[in-house]
Amino acid sequence: MTMKKFFFTLAACLAVISSCKKQENLTPKVDKGEKAVLNVSISGGPQAKAASFDENKVNSLQVFVFNGNELDAYGSAAAMTLTLNATTGQRTVYALVNAPDLSGIVKLDALKASVSNLSDNAPDSFVMVGSTTQSLGQESNIVVEVNRLAARIKLKKLTRNFRSDGLAALDASSFELVRIYATDVVTANNYALNVEAPYVWKNSTLSDSSIDTSDEFLLRTPSAPATLAQGASYSEEMCVFVYPNPCTEDSETAHCTRLVVECLIDGNCYTYPILVPRVEFNKSYEINELILTRLGNQSDGDDSIDTPENDRIESFEIPFGITVANWDTVLLGNEGIVTI
């Protein structure tokens, strides 16, 4: 899937100074900066959707201009353009898309420390953030690239290829892909994207061990019954979305995020957890093909996460391959093929 990146273009131009003294109070002068008008617009290609998620849609825009740690200007809009008053000089510009109302913030440190929750996102409203520090002149153009705070984990294809003769002989009705879901998910970060432990967990044996089946960011089911004969594949792409998780190895206080594939095989439920170490924002962790060769972890198939169901089946390396695209693609397993 190819998508265009969003850019915020801020053109700074000198405002006409009126002889009316009252207009001088519209924008305070900071460090003797001259008055300037910032015309903010969003440019991008045609909107694109992945499954039921509109990952590029812009529903709201907030722009903060800081002089050092102090707020110089703020503007918001429900559209893709806005105009706000600011002053010239060295400034830090933060652009937030689809974020909660943060208009009460007046310090850069406070904005960076503000918490963003995974629940702030929606299928057609992904929270995005970007910043730049530049000198605003009379005719400056500033481009701010924004990134989603969430990461995407995508399963493109599932193949049944059991090595056991007995399992291979089962007919198609005896093998069904039930769902995929994310576990050991970190659900909060800040707009500086530098939160460290302790984390807020969801779908984790460390904290909340129940699966919220209404949270479509963390759980997906096939659009139609996905039964497979031996050697057959299911190729409907399915995605879940999580917040960054820097963990690379499980410990008593932190776990790696997992994508869990749940299947019903010969009347019993089995899970196939796939570790995604060091989850970073705005990256798409993709499995081109997941090949199942054996039974997974035994599961009771309910919505609680028992530790054995979440255990890794096999350790494998995760190569990080980034492409110049809307999402930075990172293939899981051996060039996107995972054999369990």
Textual characterization of the structure:
The protein has 340 residues and is mainly beta. The two termini are 26 Å apart. Mean pLDDT is 83; it is low at 1-31, 43-50 and 315-325. It has three helices and 27 strands. The longest helix has 6 residues, at 108-113. 4% of the residues lie in helices and 41% in strands. The chain folds into two domains: 7-148, Immunoglobulin-like, CATH 2.60.40; 151-339. The strands form seven sheets. Strands 13, 17, 18, 21, 22 and 25 form a six-stranded antiparallel sheet that branches. It is elongated.
Task: Write a concise keyword list for the protein shown above.
single chain, 340 residues, mainly beta, Immunoglobulin-like, 2 domains, 6-stranded antiparallel beta sheet, 5-stranded antiparallel beta sheet, 3 helices, elongated, disordered N terminus
Present the secondary structure layout.
Layout: E1 7-14, E2 35-43, E3 61-67, E4 70-77, E5 81-87, E6 89-97, H1 108-113, E7 115-117, E8 128-136, E9 140-145, E10 147-148, E11 151-155, E12 158-160, H2 165-168, E13 175-183, E14 185-186, E15 188-190, E16 201-202, E17 219-220, E18 226-227, E19 233-234, E20 238-242, E21 257-265, E22 268-276, E23 283-287, E24 289-292, E25 297-299, H3 307-310, E26 328-331, E27 337-339
Parallel strand pairs: 11-23, 12-24, 23-26, 24-27
Antiparallel strand pairs: 1-2, 1-9, 2-5, 3-4, 3-6, 6-8, 7-15, 8-10, 11-20, 12-19, 13-17, 13-18, 13-21, 14-16, 21-22, 22-25
